[in-house]
Specification:
Blueprint lengths: L2 H20 L10 E2 L16 E2 L18 H10 L10 H23 L6 H10 L12 E5 L7 E5 L2 E6 L2 H15 L6 E4 L7 E4 L5 E5 L2 H12 L5
Antiparallel strand pairs: 1-2, 3-4, 4-5, 6-7, 7-8
Helix pairs in contact: 3-4
Length: 233
């Protein structure tokens, strides 16, 4: 291979890698999370620096449409959502809005793929890796709501009733997870090797709920046994 062809091959590989992570500049705004207040060029196209976290394919026309979501891009976007430093929009606001939007896609796709799809294992792994509760939160039997007092605002709710309130969201979510583990006791969880390279072993419940991904199969199996045996003597 000539030196010129070698460098062309390297550039082509780099371009494909960049497209896989960041999307192509020719792709529509609907494929990205676009900052509020984004500026456009002379041709009316949004400047690329205001477009982040590509998670749809190039055929996207509606940012809320689930059928054009690309799962590898979605996983990458979830992993990077809290790292983005927007140009025009407040960072905390953009990150919160992005994470909510991406998680909404993940929940919807899990419900869709439950009906039988080759993509079911992949979306299950994504939900497990990022601890996405896949149930519809408006109908969930157990959920966390910010409806407590000023000093204890985060409350664990079960069937519309307060169970306990906490000062920190993390503590409330930990309590909620314990309750869900108890509810899912004996739920026939299983360990599947379909997570990311650093945490390939994921624990998946029969209902599709994810219980986390782990670096080793032993860790994942321990977590699976913990859920299945929760509350047993």
């Amino acid at each position: 291979m000539s030196e010129e062809k070698f460098y062309d091959a390297v550039k082509d590989a780099a371009d494909k890698h960049a497209e896989a992570i960041f999307g192509d500049r020719t792709w529509p705004d609907a494929a990205f999370m676009v900052e509020k207040g984004a500026q456009k060029d002379a041709d009316g196209k949004t400047l690329q620096k205001y477009r982040h976290l590509v998670h749809h394919n190039k055929n996207a026309t509606d940012p809320n449409q689930n059928s054009t979501v690309d799962l590898p891009h979605l996983r990458n976007a979830l992993a990077r959502a809290n790292q983005v430093k927007p140009v025009a929009e407040d960072a905390a606001g953009f990150q919160k809005r992005s994470m909510s939007h991406l998680q909404k896609h993940a929940k919807a796709l899990l419900k869709t793929y439950q009906k039988s799809s080759a993509n079911l294992a992949e979306i299950q792994a994504i939900c497990a890796e990022f601890n996405i509760v896949v149930e519809d939160e408006s109908d969930a039997a157990v959920k966390v709501m910010k409806n407590g007092t000023a000093d204890m605002p985060y409350c664990v709710m079960q069937d519309g009733k307060k169970v306990k309130c906490y000062a920190m969201m993390k503590d409330a979510k930990d309590h909620m997870q314990q309750m869900m583990d108890k509810m899912n006791a004996g739920a026939n969880t299983k360990v599947v090797k379909n997570g990311p390279a650093e945490k390939p072993f994921c624990v998946i419940g029969a209902s599709g709920h994810g219980f986390g991904c782990y670096a080793t199969q032993q860790e994942a199996q321990s977590r699976s046994d913990q859920v299945n045996n929760f509350g047993k003597k």
